[in-house]
């Protein structure tokens, strides 16, 4: 990923093409487009990839921002390195969705990983991201440990060969609309639990609490019904508008994330592995579990 650069001193003319996102009722964000690279409808959704003045290269699905080259590390790093470094021995990773491969790229930085399986229902997203987001994912596509499955992740989790297979499952799921609806709810969490090895972790995108507070409460209530330990931590992804991004976690017989021993273990592992990260570091790891009072009140 390209490190964030200062914005241009002059903005483009008001006649520039605009991308508008209206994910949250009564609020919108806009980006000035400098070049449209892809604009098409797949079997499942409307895919757009374009370059912008302020946020680098951007992909939207059904006009909702999924990734930008400028801030993707704040999302991918925290879903990936935080649980992997606390676990310490992750060998097999499954990614639910994540067709841009930014999360896969981070997971493959860990030398002890033997397999990363990415399962995304929309093969066209994967094809376009391979072509247009090479800055983010070129290494992942070339890595022999990487397997890309164009399939329904919900169905894949229920397969016999997925049972007790993974040390980490990362649910890079969209909002609960369209084909993403199946990646929420009790049956999905039950399948995630079944596919995890004992001591394994799962991490989930859980919305922006400033505009989607109910997602935290609902997700944590469901996780608590399926897993002995679960919780919440935060990141800040500027183009996931609304401030904090909530990330939830669950453990199948492992230790709670964010405890003092786990933080110490993660800091030691990070230093030993010499990971090159744009967002994650041990101090950010520890701070991610500090919840503002108004967010803490959403935790059941």
Model description:
- It is a single chain.
- The chain has 300 residues and is α/β, with parallel strands linked by helices.
- It folds into 2 domains: 17-67, Spermidine synthase, tetramerisation domain (Spermidine Synthase, Chain: A, domain 2, Roll); 72-296, Rossmann fold, CATH 3.40.50.150.
- It is built from 10 helices and 12 strands.
- It has helices at residues 72-87, 102-107, 123-132, 134-142, 153-157, 186-195, 213-226, 260-273, 282-287, 293-296, and strands at 17-21, 29-41, 46-52, 57-61, 64-68, 92-97, 115-120, 146-150, 166-172, 196-205, 229-236, 244-252.
- The protein has a 7-stranded mixed beta sheet, sandwiched between helices. A 5-stranded antiparallel beta sheet has the order 1-2-3-4-5, covered by helices on one side.
- Helix 1 packs across helix 8 and helix 3 (123-132) packs across helix 4.
- The longest helix is centred in the N-terminal third of the chain and has 16 residues, at 72-87.
- Residues 9-15 and 177-183 have low confidence and may be disordered.
